[in-house]
Structures
1.
Amino acid sequence: MDKLLIQGGQSLRGEVAISGAKNAALPILCASLLSAEPLNLTNVPHLNDIATMLRLLGEMGVGVTMEGVDGLALSGAGLNNPVASYERVKTMRASILVLGPLLARCGEAKVSLPGGCAIGARPVDQHIKGLQAMGAEVKVEHGYVHARAQRLKGARICTDMVTVTGTENLMMAACLAEGETIIENAAREPEVVDLANCLVSMGARISGAGTDVIRIQGVDKLHGATHAIMPDRIETGTYLCAAAATGGDVRLTRTSAAYLDAVVDKLMDAGCDIVIERDAIRLKAPQRLKAVSLRTAPYPAFPTDMQAQFMAINCVAEGVATIRETIFENRFMHANELMRLGADIQIEGSNAIVRGVPALEGAAVMATDLRASASLIIAGLVAQGETLIDRIYHLDRGYERIEEKLARLGASVKRVH
């Protein structure tokens, strides 16, 4: 099993390009199920989760062709197997995103209940409730969701909680439903907007994406399209945090600060100087950061996917910060590993109190989930001596060539087998 070996103490300096967004690419790949015509995508990141989704789509009969460095052509003309098996789904929760489009196009779907990172409950009941409101017959048996509907009917759906994948699943299903579907309490994340833009380019009639009420007028069929995946805002935020923690000066290209207001504001509160360009962000860090408290909440508030990275920078910042996690109940698992490096963290329910220390010390640590992996890398970059991070397969699910990009910025990072 691969590990990451980091020699700490180097300030990150230089320029690196940000990849396409994993959390936008995954639902957009599933949109290929909605049409028999080709969907051509660019800026697709090379990640394990993307490869898993492509294998899953291939098993269903979707044709997949690589085009250039970051391009894909997907053809749903051969779709003949509306089944997502446990073997394929168990490693990736986003696999549930095939449920809506399969049901809408094939009239049936059999999808295994998903796996993924162990950061807390992410139930699929909102997906099922919405599809039932649209006339689907849904049963959960032997670990699989079985859904049938001759043709889905438009409906008014109000989710009990804000759910990104639930919003995306129901939006895709509604594109081919008969009549109008209204999704209330919809997720407002930029990745939802990116999916909506792709669907509109395929002929869908969608309004309100990016607000908490999305309206979809169903159409008889969708056609092919070309779409560029948005830049990854979480990868962007992670590299900004790594530069901030190490007292660095970096410029990130092929990205945008438009989706990162809450993160940029907190980094500026911590003492960083940030310059925003049209498709780039430059950050200059002070010698030592100031501690910043935060509370995670659905977009446009502070993202839960950046909580672990900010815990890492608060570990070496001046002062005391309180981090409140409101999205996932198990998302402080990285705290114990950070403490192995010398961090001063106290967990009280859904709050973490982080007292900054002058320095961290390298040690062997273990990644527990995707974003926890990123926090350990940031801590390892500032720690004195050597840090060895085990179970980095989590990293490969969500960060493209992270050791190469960090090395380009001057970090001493290498993958060991």
2.
Amino acid sequence: MLVSTVGIHRSSSRSHDGGGWLDSRHSFSFGHHQDPMNTHFGRLLVSNDDRIAAGSGFDTHGHRDMEIVTWVLSGSLVHQDSEGNNGIIYPGLAQRMSAGSGILHSERNDGWRDGSIRHDQPPGQPVHLVQMWVVPDEAGGDPGYEQLEIAPGELENQLVVVAGGLPTYSDRSAIRIRNRSSALLASRLAPGRSVQLPDAPYLHLYIPVGSAALEGEGVLETGDAARLTASGGRTVTAGGDGAEILVWEMHQAMTLRDVRGH
């Protein structure tokens, strides 16, 4: 039986790459930032909060055996991959790339192109996004891609299933991931408004924008996260400026084979 625990991870404790076109803060070990005591939580292997300068981005690179979900907070991002998929990702558009047996892709800030922005941010600004990786149920298989816009009103003051693999959410998720034990939920909370977290063995709560109080644990500021084990069902309440929250609900943890494979 899992022991009920809550771990608060402050933004200031996250590893950081910055000083150039990319400002990236990592929730777990990533790239040359390796900490054997902080490799993953549940099935979540990567949760990076990235800001990419206008006209810049990740050139073509490869992935395999990973479900990659990208959630843009402001700005817009151009995606292109070796399977012929391409699109512009902007706030409220859920995107999933299944790396499968191997895929190449690039991601670049679309803000330098006049007329490309589909929201209120002017051209030339950084794109702010959170990219999250979860381990699929099975290795290999064909690569895949999916994106779908979520109506702004749907995200207001309630948790919406952005990326679902859990059978519980089969008729509610915007996009599907190849992981039947995990789902990503999101909400935009007005000041003082609350949502109740799911009851699950593993929950990862991240506050990319604003601040929010987690019942029994105090206030989480921008960039803070909470890792809850067997402690679901708690309430999250937005602070005075509101908050955007991202919640991974996970019913399994990574196995030793998963850890060794990545």
3.
Amino acid sequence: MALAIELADELGLDSVSMRLLADRAGLPAHLLYRQVRNRGDLLGMMAERVIDARRARTAAAHDGPRARLAHLARDEWAMYRRHPWLLTVLASDRPPTGPAVLAMVDRVVSVLTDAGFDPASAYRAYLVLSGYIQGMALLIARPPADPDYRSWRSATHLRLEHTGRLRQRPWLTAASRTDPDEDLDSWFDFGLDRMLDGLLMPHGSH
């Protein structure tokens, strides 16, 4: 699994195939298929390995629900930052359901039930929070990096400036001065703070 994760980190998820993995490992493909049935199982096992590696990083037990949720959210965010391909595996209508994946959901739902949510509402709140994290993770650059991105960004800025669309939209002018590569973590924290404020309103307001 370590080799498959290394390949995905280096080349992107589309590059990971059973054949390439066998070649890199120096094994006949049929021996690899004895351990992993298909690519779907391989991706699930890769996700399990990455998530399980971070399992011990838990928030302090005495922290309140907001701090614990923030910790868990940033921990998931850090996984997508380190392994952008993981988003494709988890953000699916058929996600893997191995022990580590389920434990990741358990940790969030447990905090929400401790905060007063009933089990069904806790799961809905988890989906809201997870949807925010995964939605922001779509902005993370995936390897291999697009060599034309900065050219596109520069050309787009010039076009918007020449057509007057920047002047008409102060928010767009401000956005054009930011760099997603440098500012993405602060954007994530900005939204996370407000997301948690909304989720953890007094229980009677839900």
4.
Amino acid sequence: MKVTVKMLHGGQCSIEVSGDTKISEMKTMVDEFLFVAPHLQRLVFKGKTLSEEMTVDDAGITEGAKIHLMVKKSESPSPANGAGSSKNISPGPTIDFFAQLSSFLSKHLTEEQTAKVVSEFRKNCQLMIDSMNFDDIERFAASNFTEF
């Protein structure tokens, strides 16, 4: 059966597997097409991370399924060695969104109201994040974070 393996922001490939193909074997096939070393791959199907010992049948993967590939960061910096390598990018300053929200709301609400609104907003954001799968995240990003 043919399945598609897709990176969140990158390429995709179609590979031919059978029901008894192990996930570890799939990772080797993916490496041949997308140049991501098997030990840096995390394959996700229907929101569940696939373990290397599982087979395609164990995971419930069927013909035409879409499997998401998450690439783990390399543990040690190494020179660029192909499409699977990534540059080390240092993150910018961390901005606490909820602190900014609280600061803004405090100009318009009482301290108690501000704390309640921020607390509810934080809970609702967490519920939304917990309910998202990789397809949802991809659609959300494609809409410039305006539609969910």
